[in-house]
Amino acid sequence: MATAFSGALFPPTFPVTNDTVIGAAELAGDMTTRDITACCSTMSIFYDGTPDNCCVLGFHSYDFEPGVPSNGNRERRYVMMYASWIDPGLFIGGFEDVTAYSHEMSETYNDPFVDNQTPWWLSSDPIFGGLCQDNLETGDVVEVLSGNPVYPVPMHNRTYHPSNEALFSGSRLSRPQPHA
User: pLDDT digits over 84-115, tens only?
Assistant: First the structure.
């Protein structure tokens, strides 16, 4: 995530102040520890460190604040996600409109505190290359696949392109059968 953009979103110090987007939302009660706050923009594309590390279209995170007497002095975590609306034709693979939003919302729901470690996994594609990581990023494992990174959904005279996600399907489990 771009450092300057992140700095404009998150309060830099304790206690929270209203001079950042997240800080102002927390203080106004628009963002609470009981919800997922979604921040969206149109066609904002970031890079991580250098332009060679393009393109960041969204991310999920949380703002940590210390506890207060009214909550028993327990830490407070304000969960959020950011995603950019993507104009059609800019990226290959059908990445457009709500792709980044659906991708980040799924990942936020599955790993709200960005600390859900998993065994190392490798997602490899002959066209887009590969990705190897050890955290629960349910969209990352699919986004590098040239097959079906998005699922077109026609609705209200428009077709949207939510991200396909790697999800665990309990109905497809093969359970060992007891021996007779």
Answer: 999 999 888 888 999 999 999 999 998 999 88
Tell me which amino acid residue 2 is. A
Of 129, 156, 119, 135, the closest CA to residue 60 belongs to 135
Contact 85, 77 (CB under 8 A): no
Nearest to 143 by CA among 90, 104, 89: 104
Record the tokens describing residue 101, joined without a space.
Answer: 């939003």
Show the domain range for 81.
Answer: 1-85
pLDDT, tens digit, for every residue of 15-48?
788 889 999 999 999 999 999 999 999 988 888 7
Q: How many domains are there within the chain? A: 1
Q: List beta partners, residue 38.
A: 81
Q: How much is the pTM? A: 0.83
130: number of Cβ within 10 Å: 11
Whether residue 54 lies inside any domain: the answer is yes
Which residues does residue 83 pair with via DSSP β-bridges, in sequence order? 40, 58
Contact in structure between 141 and 131 (CB atoms under 8 Å): yes
Q: How many CB atoms lie within 10 A of CB 78?
A: 23
Lookup: tokens for 47: 């890079």
